[in-house]
Design goal:
- The complex is a heterodimer.
- Chain A is an all-beta fold.
- Chain A is built from no helices and 10 strands.
- Helices cover about 0% and strands about 50% of the residues of chain A.
- In chain A, strands 2-10-9-4-5-6 form a 6-stranded mixed beta sheet, with no helix packed on it.
- In chain A, strand 4 and strand 5 (about 45-50) form a beta hairpin.
- Chain A is globular.
- Chain B is globular.
- At the A-B interface, strand 5 of A face strand 4, strand 5, strand 9 and strand 10 of B.
Chain lengths: ~120, ~110
């Protein structure tokens, strides 16, 4: 069955970096784009952007340009999200989700930024 | 950005009853190709969101027919009939017609 398995929770200090992974299985990885969605504690969902898993080209929503990088390890059917120069407001759960209608989601990766 | 306004924010329901959630967009969600990219998700407590309805009215695989979506242009509705305990949680609409994609603020379906 289709599965997206994300990496575990992270506790970081402001200014540090974090890399979250999303490993796909049960389908052909390059057939579907991968999207990233942020959910701050107790808040709603915010779309961050997506990566074309065939070409590797990322597209970022304006609020996520600069410190955020989407990348792939296509041979491992894995999409990654890296956030640099972490700020307190990056504290959130980050979800990966598959395809044009986001029909499969990872379990979420919690990132806590605290000094 | 397209603003998606969901109402109500909180919706108390009785089990077996009916629920209706509205999602209005600040501009038409009809794409130049004629399709309307408005989708609905349910996020149960402590879980990831799950797709319920895609492109306004298409139920995703495995979604009970108690869930139905309708609407056009800027005005969309999700209806849940015969509410069951597993239907409780936060509902979100999402538009993917315009960049950037934007979610509604969410509607919490809870027991009356």
């Amino acid at each position: 069955q289709i599965q997206l398995v994300q990496s575990g929770p992270e506790l970081k200090k402001p200014g540090e970096s974090v890399k979250i992974s999303c490993k796909a299985s049960g389908y052909t990885f390059t057939d579907y784009a991968m999207h990233w969605v942020k959910q701050a504690p107790g808040k709603g969902l915010k779309w961050m952007g997506w990566i074309n898993t065939y070409t590797g080209k990322p597209t970022y929503a304006d609020d996520f340009k600069g410190r955020f990088v989407f990348s792939l390890e296509a041979s491992a059917s894995t999409a990654n999200l890296q956030i640099s120069n972490l700020k307190n407001e990056d504290t959130a759960t980050y979800f990966c989700a598959r395809g044009k209608v986001m029909d499969a989601w990872g379990q979420g990766a919690s990132v806590t930024v605290s000094s | 950005d397209v603003v998606m306004t969901q109402t109500p924010v909180s919706l108390p329901v009785s089990l077996g009853g009916q629920a209706s959630i509205s999602c209005r967009s600040s501009q038409s969600l009809v794409h130049s190709n004629g399709n309307t990219y408005l989708h609905w998700y349910l996020q149960k407590p402590g879980q990831s969101p799950q797709l319920l309805i895609y492109r306004v009215s298409n139920r995703f695989s495995g979604v009970p027919d108690r869930f139905s979506g309708s609407g056009s242009g800027t005005d969309f509705t999700l209806k849940i009939s015969r509410v069951e305990p597993e239907d409780l949680g936060d509902y979100y609409c999402l538009q993917s017609t315009h960049f950037p994609w934007t979610f509604g603020g969410g509607t919490k379906l809870e027991l009356k």
